[in-house]
Specification:
- The protein is of the alpha+beta class.
- The protein has one domain: Peptide Methionine Sulfoxide Reductase, Chain A, CATH 3.30.1060.10.
- The protein is built from 6 helices and 8 strands.
- The protein has helices spanning 11-18, 41-45, 66-75, 102-117, 145-149, 153-169, and strands at 2-8, 24-32, 52-59, 84-85, 88-89, 95-99, 128-131, 135-137.
- The two termini are 22 Å apart.
- The relative contact order is 0.23.
């Protein structure tokens, strides 16, 4: 198994999509990329910890490769808006790829360069690519959020469209829900 750590807005949104991908063993919502030790949701939401809401994805690289995970990542969030995703505003919602080794770093940079060359987005990509220093799992009630709360309005209005978009674009990679 290999891990990837990605942030693109609310971790509930990313978690819900990545949990449905073939080859993904587990997805843990958490915090990374900042300077405050042992952050919690409240402190991260203050915007003063430097941490982003992220997901750590454990996956089988024989089934799902890192570049494909990044393709899904860039499909389900807006990598051109600094410190925000939709109505969620603050540095904790920034687009960030936290690499664990040089291969991940190089792949992330190559994917961003390719998307830029292809003009895949109308505005410049602002996704931060940084080394993963430490990952802090979020509190238990943030784990499996969509699976536990699908009928909630936030899930219906924000997460469902991301699931639909990923399902349409990556139908061959999706497991049955």
């Amino acid at each position: 198994m290999t891990t990837a750590t990605l942030g693109g807005g609310c971790f509930w949104c990313l978690e819900a999509v990545f949990q449905r991908l073939a080859g993904v063993h587990s997805v843990t919502s958490g915090y990374a990329g900042g300077h405050t030790p042992d952050p919690d949701y409240r402190s991260v939401c203050s915007g003063r910890t430097g941490h982003a809401e992220v997901v750590q994805i454990e996956y089988d690289p024989a089934v799902m490769d890192y570049e494909t995970l990044l393709a899904v990542f860039f499909t389900i969030h807006d990598p051109t808006t600094p410190n925000r995703q939709g109505a969620d505003v603050g540095p904790q919602y920034r687009s960030i790829i936290l690499w664990e080794n040089e291969d991940q770093r190089d792949t992330a940079n190559a994917v961003i360069q390719r998307l830029t060359r292809e003009s895949a987005f109308p505005n410049p990509i602002v996704t931060e690519v940084a080394p993963l220093e430490r990952f802090y799992p979020a509190e238990a009630h943030h784990q499996d959020y969509y699976l536990e709360n699908a009928p909630m309005p936030y899930c219906q209005m924000v997460i469902e469209p991301k699931l639909k978009k990923a399902g349409e674009r990556f139908s061959t990679l999706m497991r049955d829900a």
